[in-house]
Design a protein that fits this description.
- 2 copies of one chain form a homodimer.
- Chain A folds into 4 domains: about 210 residues, no CATH class; about 150 residues; about 90 residues, Sandwich (Immunoglobulin-like), CATH 2.60.40; about 120 residues, no CATH class.
- The first copy, chain A, has 15 helices and 23 strands.
- In chain A, the strands form 3 sheets. In chain A, strands 2-6-7-8-13-10-11 form a 7-stranded antiparallel sheet. Chain A has a 6-stranded mixed beta barrel with strand order 15-16-21-19-17-23. A 5-stranded mixed sheet of chain A has the order 1-4-5-9-12, with no helix packed on it.
- Chain A has about 650 residues and is of the alpha+beta class.
- Helices cover about 35% and strands about 20% of the residues of chain A.
- The termini of chain A are far apart.
- At the A-B interface, α12, β14, β15 and β20 of A face α12, β14, β15 and β20 of B.
């Protein structure tokens, strides 16, 4: 068992007063294989060198390096390219905390030296501005200066926590002190068009105990909502989260990543200050989002236009934007709300997001990425070009290796590297397990080993390998999709209540074995009747996994644009050995391939002249959505028109 | 009756060989009131001064004026702002042809002088390039140089035909000669990223008889399709209509306006050269578009991203882009195909486009415009700001007065000014009437008076006021939506066949009266089953008019996001006196306001746990879609979920 006062991981509030559940320390959870453990290894061995190479190639490192050499030259890439490097450094730092490595440590040291050399004497740091392309603080609406600094701060915090080193943190404190000097105590009343620094400043406060960082985070939240931020002829203040004060906002609007980064900062400030209005606003926005602006895959931000949230129930699969970063921000906000409330619904959303959109964002080889994530593809688009960076607008048929705006891949990297932090929490009364994956949990309360093939099946075994003597409660999340969960301790049944967690209170002994079983038959899912885009359609889910139909699995002659599934016939499951990334469960579904020839040439009919439907029976194979587009360009859909056999 | 060799109107082919039907001359059709006649008057009295004022205010005129004064200064507005002025001049020119006016004629003379003074000695003309902002012909992918010149050519052609004046035509010929000199005979093998000049050059050939213009138009079509045009990190060659050679293209792709301007040019070249492969390609593309990429409103180009065509059946109403210019381009292409084939389906699409999207694009006062036209609005957005130009991205709740990219309003103006040209055609055998509106038709075959309140009702009376002595055939289009059309001549029934036109061949007498009746009960319409976005939904149509439900007409407590219409109950029609723009027919429909409270907090359910539907009966009032957003910001929808009473 670990001692108390372990090394804090990501999002480690100093004030315990607002914590319904407390995050575990950086070394208190270790992934021990399985899907996520394997990805964590690939993240280190494949994605990290891939990303570092691209950051050199696209100028992101060089923009800073040349500054330190006194010869900035023309800036390459996006004006906020610094942030890509910072996010990679954050990810590598968490990874170093997990498993030290001299080479990787050296990479971070070198980068920290490059960044330190680029920094102005007064602490300011932004390669685009310092390169002479813009005036400092002159265009906060679009400059991303505080946004980039926020990511640098997060990298510095991660590096300090994970390695104990001060190289990056020293740079970060000078940056933060510069911002406090210029903006603190309302010396400036404006803020960045792209929120991010708010949560970073709270984390820096947690590491340093320096209150002005927390005060500034709150100020940067307070100044929003007065319609100052807007770019004429481009985006309005709702896009910049500046149309309504945070405490009055009832739902999520505007640019999805910005909205959820801001929300995460708002909850972070609540977690330290206890200002109830902030939590209320955050829960209100989150609840509205989950009820009416969240895709089944965990995608948020339906609109290409402004990469923004749409109206309620505006959730078209074929035109879903679903930026990878937005779902990562959703996970960040949901995790903070879980800490604040202890409610399982926040973990349910995290699980949904991780197993579906987040997992789909990255190729099974972990070296290619989707920026936006469609939930339906009606035609197979050309494959992403190798070795170049297509714009996100082109939305190719397979995952590109990198992007001109490369925000997503580093965001994926840091999320995977720090994933252990989302597995479990503690209270004075015990431990709560939120995510099921092979792991060891090593806390002052007890040490546990969790074994599972989840989500391949729903069996989880938790073995107590050490425990305190006093009784404590082990809480296991019962996912919202799960019906009929059961649990035993050493073979004896324990009751499973109807709330979000099975809670088992007892005097635990080393060697106790908890067997938790979540039945996960494949099921059909229907969307809210106001989601016109998938009206009369069903999706297939199994446990936390959203399935899709993809053209490589279609029988000859089947076009996924003309099928209907027979929802009164049973779904059949089988293990397929040849799925991308390894064996997995596929679902076979009875369907009809419609013969739409009576519609040839026209897009509509008068209702009373509508041709009768006809077609032939086919059996289709659904695969986990996260695996799509790993076998070349394809047609894909999640929701499918529903038909009953008896109505044909 | 007019003499032959009347003044040609827009699109007047020189070669008769490819004409199934021949357009009438500029003075052979006169609108005599009604909806379109009134709009034509408003276009002259309201829209024209409104547009001229904005063109001064936004710099479009001044950019050219300052060039002529030798002091270009910084260019204001879009780099293709010249084209806005040219399109307005085209519209005013057609209007002058309709009804001469010394003031308006003076405006055109003044503008022609400004344009002439700006022109380079070698004929080149582009205020952005001449202002030093770009190098001539250096960036054809995005420069819009040939695009702007195309619009100038169209203005010059219109002015020449309508007024006989040479002021603009002289400028235009120097421009065209400059392009021929630099591009003709494949001296350059590239072309503009935005097609437009192709149809302009064919029209200039028609006015001048100068074959190199036609040759160049064909060349600019031939050079497309070799993936030369692309803007890295921005748009691909499909967007620029350069991914596939025109003759091989099977469906419409890419930027919708560009695609249909190019298609119009392709048909124009066919009409003069008779190259069958061009017509085949055009009919193939058009047919594919109408079957799977056309909205009920006549909107085309479903995607915001790239203002482009989507995949087949990708027709989401809430995220419809539906640029006004794209539907105008659809009308242009369809008209040319009607001339080439004489088939009613092309006129059917023109009618649909005119009465719905085109009419909806403009406020009933005719001084405000939609750039993009949603087919569903789930929430009421803020009204368009008065007296400023919002970007199209903001997509406000009401029509803005003008736009930073002001392509649409002038396009509407020139279409309305020249609308008489689309009403009827002739053959050696007689006359064909394609559009029903109050008009006089005055041709060498006969003179007719058409009286109707269409589409208020479906009764059309055609009176022969003069006729040649030999028998001829009067053809009246039977719209695709019409069932049970009937016709009488002097009270005696004549047979109405099943093809697209009633054809009445006889020896006509002055005073003969044809009464043509199109029953137009309100009807429900369903979309192709592959259009997932409106699956299980119905629209309401009456005659050529698409209806919508809009929140100002909703009873208290009704939210249009939660209703279902009862499709087995009758639709009721009544005349409403208080509609925007005057009295009209509204349709009352039985519906259910769903109680979705069982869904509170969640966006989906397992199919076997889906809450039973409940709700209360309401009666809703549908208004013509063209009138929406004339009463302030609103919620609006065209397609509505369908329900049968017996299934509740």
């Amino acid at each position: 068992m670990t001692q108390t006062n372990s090394v804090p991981g990501p999002v480690s509030p100093v004030s315990g007063h607002q914590l319904a559940v407390t995050p575990l320390g950086l070394h208190e959870v270790t992934l021990t294989g399985g899907f996520w453990g394997q990805w964590q290894r690939q993240n280190r061995e494949v994605t990290t060198p891939h990303a570092l190479a691209w950051l050199e190639r696209d100028g992101s490192v060089d923009n800073l390096r040349r500054l330190g050499q006194g010869d900035p030259g023309p800036h390459r890439g996006m004006w906020f390219s610094d942030s890509d490097l910072y996010k990679v450094l954050e990810g590598v730092s968490w990874d170093l905390g997990r498993e030290p490595d001299e080479h990787l440590a050296g990479v971070v040291r070198d980068m920290a030296a490059i960044i330190a050399a680029a920094q102005e004497p007064d602490g300011y740091l932004n390669s685009y501005v310092q390169g002479g392309h813009q005036v400092r603080w002159d265009n906060l609406v679009t400059s991303h200066e505080l946004y980039c600094m926020g990511h640098l701060i997060q990298a510095g915090v991660a590096h300090k926590r994970a390695t104990g080193g001060d190289e990056l943190l020293d740079v970060v404190r000078r940056v933060a002190d510069c911002v406090v000097r210029d903006f603190g105590d309302l010396r400036r009343k404006d803020t960045d068009g792209h929120p991010e620094i708010e949560m970073a400043l709270v984390e820096l406060y947690r590491v340093t105990g320096h209150a002005p960082y927390l005060d500034l985070a709150r100020q940067l939240i307070d100044v929003r909502g007065h319609r100052v931020l807007a770019a004429e002829g481009h985006f309005d203040s709702a896009y910049y989260l500046d149309a309504t004060p945070v405490r009055e906002q009832s739902t999520v609007v505007g640019h999805a990543v910005r909205a959820l980064y801001l929300l995460s900062g708002v909850i972070d400030v609540y977690l330290e200050t206890g200002e109830q209005a902030l939590l209320d606003a955050a829960v209100r926005q989150w609840s509205s989002m989950v009820a009416s602006k969240l895709y089944l895959t965990g995608a948020v931000g339906s609109r290409f236009e402004g990469e923004s949230f749409g109206d309620e129930y505006e959730l078209p699969p074929d035109l879903a934007y679903g930026e990878t970063c937005a779902t990562i921000a959703l996970i960040q906000a949901s995790w903070r709300l879980l800490l604040a409330t202890g409610e399982s619904r926040f973990a349910d959303v995290i699980e949904r997001a991780l197993h579906n959109l987040f997992a789909a964002s990255t190729s099974v080889e972990r070296n290619a990425f989707f920026y936006n994530n469609p939930a339906q593809r009606r035609s197979a688009r050309p494959a992403a070009p190798l070795d170049t960076r297509p714009s996100r607008a082109e939305a190719p048929g397979t995952r590109p290796q990198w992007f001109p705006c490369a925000c997503c891949p580093p965001n994926i990297m840091r999320t995977i590297a720090a994933l252990a932090g989302h597995v479990a929490t503690r209270t004075d009364d015990g431990l709560q397990i939120h995510l099921y994956l092979p792991a060891t949990i090593d806390t002052p309360v007890a040490s546990l080993t969790m074994q599972t093939q989840y989500p391949l099946d729903g069996a989880v075994t938790v073995t107590v390998t050490a425990t305190r003597e006093e009784p404590w409660t082990l809480a296991l999340r019962v996912p919202d999709w799960c019906r009929g969960a059961s649990a035993t301790v050493n073979g004896e049944s324990v009751p499973v209540g109807s709330e979000g967690y099975v809670r088992i209170n007892r005097t635990w002994q080393t060697g106790d074995v908890v067997a938790f079983t979540m039945p996960m038959p494949a099921r059909f899912t229907v969307a809210h009747p106001s989601v016109d885009a998938v009206r009369g359609e069903v999706a297939i889910e199994r446990g936390p996994v959203v399935y899709c139909l993809e053209s490589p699995d279609s029988p000859d002659g089947v076009d996924l644009n003309h099928i209907e599934v027979l929802v009164d016939e049973p779904l059949a499951e089988r293990v397929a050995e040849d799925l991308p990334g390894g064996p997995g469960v596929v679902v076979e579904v009875a369907a009809v391939m419609r013969d739409d020839s009576a519609w040839a040439g026209t897009g509509w009919f008068a209702l009373d002249e509508e041709p009768a439907e006809s077609g032939r029976r086919v059996t289709l194979t659904a695969i986990p959505y996260r695996l799509w587009a790993n076998r070349g360009p394809s047609v894909m859909r999640i929701f499918v028109p529903a038909q009953r056999s008896d109505r044909r």
